[in-house]
């Protein structure tokens, strides 16, 4: 140790001369070298002292930090940003958009598209991910029997996809090198490839093949509870004054009982802890005996919001995560929808092009709809992470649902005619109006 | 340093707490909860007796944020400096009408048998009084508009806030901070807008947070409008003028917020 510090000192004594050198780059290099030396010196010192105490240990002193305290539950991982335990929503690109995944104890609101086709698909992905991870699944519905929805889950693709993708990437890279005929202007050569599909670097969640349904054995291997409103409603109801309607009260009670019975509130022993995934379909629709979709001034305006408050309270104190779909375009009073959004943690809205004039617009020909991130969760920190871009679109490929950054399609025609230019300008105008959803006025600038 | 800009902006410091202030926080298209966290840690540092009605988040959330700002809520609660009502905790039981119906539960209004917030006010009254070594008394509410979602009428909320103001600001000469969150359209005649108008009329300092009118931006999270009310001769904001107004932009960081004049964010300059 002494000898090493002697080296350090001697180097230090020489340093004024080095810094006096006229070439600045050399100085910085030398400073780096010095720092490296200092680092290595202190490292070896540390290692030696460790060796003194534990002579058997001859590996490096750098050890991977392991969280042995936390018993890991399958299908979960701690979030990079705030250390919160997160689970996947079943759609990898959606996980990326909402900040890595869905935090345990939070509520995800999905505003349905007009025909409830894509939001239903998201709900199925959410449930399928629960089945694959072995979570306990709860499904509440008022329209379709839950068993029907469960029979229709997409089949997981359990092959190792990332390695395949990497291989393919390498192959294509080689191909482009072999051809070597296309030259790019030198200043663009080193730019990274623009990647429109959103995905995080490490793999989390599974991929699903929407064209096949999940095997029955797989589905039956996990515990599944259902709530189908027509079966649960008693013949006659007792009219007691309550801010929450009968249907929602029954639903909330059955969730509460399930959490208590199965010990999701932390009473279960450490080893058998699991996640409860709750999927609730089309809350607020008339089938839940709610009139917020029919009236501007509904008789029970606070019924759904009170239910969501109770649900939030249950989720915060247990190992649960929940996805709720709401037909927001049917809700007459905007103030109620605002309150519903506030009571959820993450809120996204799907806007499909089906049946609208955007379906035929050349700008949107690659996509099936737009995805708006309305709210990101606020958990254990002052900032809430917002996505880098709010211009997102989704598409349903033959097998897979994915979310991408919205961009203009390349103009591939040889001669750019004036009319197509006008088209693109028009669609660019549309794009700005579609994406600047938050811009409430353009009267003045912000600076 | 925690939120140094906001303290100097408002002329607040841990040494000097104005007496009898009613501070109203509001947000539209943005999230003002960072201000609640700021005031919570400010008052706890200043050695005030704090009563916190946390209606929308769990205690662990506030405690994790406060820890980043350098205040230990668990310790403050054990020492009796902080009285924390965790609204979410026993709300399910009340909503589902389990257990006895009693006015002793602060969240008893969720049962629907009581139409006013009397039980909640009783809780506030019990908590802010008897300060002992801690003074003055402070009441913080996060957030008031969630009560509307729970079926409480605007009149009942205004009654509640009036009673609280009389008790905390006048009798005990303490401060009261309330957050109201409103929706996007301003010409909504009922609910949160009405609540906001009525409370703006009563408050002595209003901080309203708004998202940028031109839309979302990564480097500027929104703008804050600060309005002081006249408090009689000689009592003015730090600028010296009476009833003054300031408009600033802000950005929330991991451990604080920075405020800057419009157009002077680091992303622009």
What would you note in describing this structure?
- The complex is a heterodimer of chains A (447) and B (269).
- Chain A is an alpha/beta fold and 447 residues long.
- Chain A has 2 domains: 2-53; 81-160 and 193-427, 3-Layer(aba) Sandwich (Rossmann fold), CATH 3.40.50.300.
- Chain A is built from 13 helices and 14 strands.
- In chain A, strand 13 and strand 14 (401-405) form a beta hairpin.
- The longest helix of chain A has 30 residues, at 24-53.
- Mean pLDDT of chain A is 74; it is low at 1-35, 37-59, 161-179 and 435-442.
- Chain B is of the alpha/beta class and 269 residues long.
- Chain B has one domain (15-204): Rossmann fold (3-Layer(aba) Sandwich).
- Chain B has 9 helices and 9 strands.
- Chain B has a 9-stranded mixed β-sheet with strand order 3-2-4-5-1-6-7-8-9, sandwiched between helices.
- In chain B, strand 8 (245-253) and strand 9 form a beta hairpin.
- The radius of gyration of chain B is 18 Å and the shape is globular.
- Residues 232-241 of chain B have low confidence and may be disordered.
Briefly summarize what is shown.
In chain A, 37% of the residues lie in helices and 16% in strands.
Using brief descriptors, characterize the structure shown.
heterodimer; A: 447 residues; alpha/beta; 2 domains; nine-stranded mixed beta sheet; 16% strand; B: 269 residues; Rossmann fold; globular
CATH topology of the largest domain in chain A: Rossmann fold
Strand order of the largest sheet of chain B: 3-2-4-5-1-6-7-8-9
Instruction: Count interface residues per chain for the largest interface.
Output: A-B, 51 and 57 residues
Mean pLDDT of chain A: 74
Please mark out the parts of chain A with pLDDT under 50 across 5 or more consecutive residues, or reply none.
1-35, 37-59, 161-179, 435-442
Please give the number of β-strands of chain A. Answer: 14
Pathway (chain B): tRNA modification; 5-methoxycarbonylmethyl-2-thiouridine-tRNA biosynthesis
Family (chain B): Belongs to the ELP6 family.
Pfam families (chain B): ELP6
Organism (chain B): Paramormyrops kingsleyae
């Amino acid at each position: 140790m002494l000898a090493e510090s002697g080296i350090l000192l001697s180097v230090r004594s020489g340093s004024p001369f080095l810094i006096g050198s006229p070439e600045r780059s050399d100085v910085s290099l030398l400073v780096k070298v010095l720092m490296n030396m200092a680092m290595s010196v202190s490292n070896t010192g540390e290692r030696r002292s460790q060796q003194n105490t534990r002579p058997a240990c001859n590996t490096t002193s750098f050890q991977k930090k392991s969280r042995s305290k936390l018993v890991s539950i399958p299908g979960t991982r701690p979030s990079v940003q705030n250390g919160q335990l997160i689970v996947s929503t079943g759609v990898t690109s959606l996980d990326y958009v909402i900040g890595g995944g869905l935090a345990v104890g939070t509520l995800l609101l999905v505003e349905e598209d007009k025909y409830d086709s894509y939001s239903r698909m998201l709900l199925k992905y959410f449930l399928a991910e629960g089945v694959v991870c072995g979570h306990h699944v709860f499904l509440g519905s008022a329209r379709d029997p839950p068993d029907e929805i469960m029979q229709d889950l997409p089949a997981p693709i359990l092959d190792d996809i990332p390695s395949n993708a990497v291989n393919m990437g390498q192959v294509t890279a080689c191909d482009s090198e072999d051809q070597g005929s296309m030259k790019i202007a030198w200043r663009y050569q080193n730019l990274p490839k623009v990647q429109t599909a959103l995905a995080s670097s490490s793999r989390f969640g599974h991929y699903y093949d929407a064209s096949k349904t999940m095997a029955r054995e797989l589905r039956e291997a996990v515990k599944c509870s259902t709530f189908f409103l027509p079966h649960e409603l008693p013949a006659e109801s007792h009219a007691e004054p309550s801010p929450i309607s009968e249907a929602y009260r029954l639903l909330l009670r059955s969730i509460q009982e399930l959490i208590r019975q199965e010990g999701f509130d932390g009473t279960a022993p450490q080893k058998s802890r699991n996640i409860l995934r709750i999927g609730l379909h089309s809350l607020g629709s008339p089938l839940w005996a709610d009139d917020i979709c029919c009236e501007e001034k509904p008789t029970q305006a606070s019924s759904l919001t009170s239910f969501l408050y109770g649900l939030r309270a249950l989720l915060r104190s247990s190992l649960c995560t929940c996805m709720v779909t709401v037909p927001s375009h049917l809700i007459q009073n905007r103030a109620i929808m605002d309150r519903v959004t506030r009571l959820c943690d993450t809120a996204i809205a799907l806007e499909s092009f089906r049946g609208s004039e955007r379906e035929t617009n050349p700008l949107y020909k690659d996509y099936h709809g737009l995805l708006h991130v309305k709210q990101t969760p606020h958990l254990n920190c002052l900032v809430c992470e917002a996505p880098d871009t709010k211009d997102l679109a989704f598409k349903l490929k033959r097998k897979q649902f994915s979310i991408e950054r919205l961009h203009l399609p390349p103009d591939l025609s040889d001669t750019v005619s004036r009319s197509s230019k006008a088209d693109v300008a028009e669609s660019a105008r549309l794009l700005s109006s579609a994406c600047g959803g938050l811009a409430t006025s353009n009267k003045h600038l912000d600076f | 340093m925690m939120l140094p800009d906001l303290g100097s902006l408002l002329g607040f410091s841990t040494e000097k707490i104005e007496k009898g202030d009613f501070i109203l926080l509001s947000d539209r298209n943005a999230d003002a909860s960072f201000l609640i966290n700021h005031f919570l840690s400010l008052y706890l540092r200043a050695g005030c007796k704090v009563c916190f009605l946390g209606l929308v988040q769990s205690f662990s959330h506030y405690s994790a944020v406060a820890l980043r700002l350098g205040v230990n809520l668990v310790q403050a609660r054990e020492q009796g400096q902080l009285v924390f009502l965790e609204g979410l905790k026993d709300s399910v039981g009340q909503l589902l009408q389990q257990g006895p119906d009693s006015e002793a539960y602060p969240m008893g209004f969720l049962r629907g048998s009581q139409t006013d917030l009397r039980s909640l006010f009783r809780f506030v009254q019990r908590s802010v009084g008897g300060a002992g070594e801690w003074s003055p008394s402070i009441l913080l509410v996060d957030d008031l508009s969630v009560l509307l979602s729970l079926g409480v009428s605007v009149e009942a909320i205004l009654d509640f806030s009036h009673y609280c103001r009389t008790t905390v600001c006048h009798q005990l000469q303490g401060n009261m901070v309330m957050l109201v969150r409103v929706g996007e359209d301003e010409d909504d005649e009922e609910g949160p807008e009405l609540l906001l108008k009525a409370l703006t009329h009563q408050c002595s300092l209003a901080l309203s947070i708004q998202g940028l009118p031109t839309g979302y931006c990564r480097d500027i999270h929104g703008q804050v409008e600060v309005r002081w009310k006249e408090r009689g001769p000689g009592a003015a904001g730090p600028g010296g003028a009476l009833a003054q107004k300031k408009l600033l932009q802000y950005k929330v960081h991991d451990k604080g917020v920075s405020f800057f004049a419009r157009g002077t964010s680091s992303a622009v300059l």
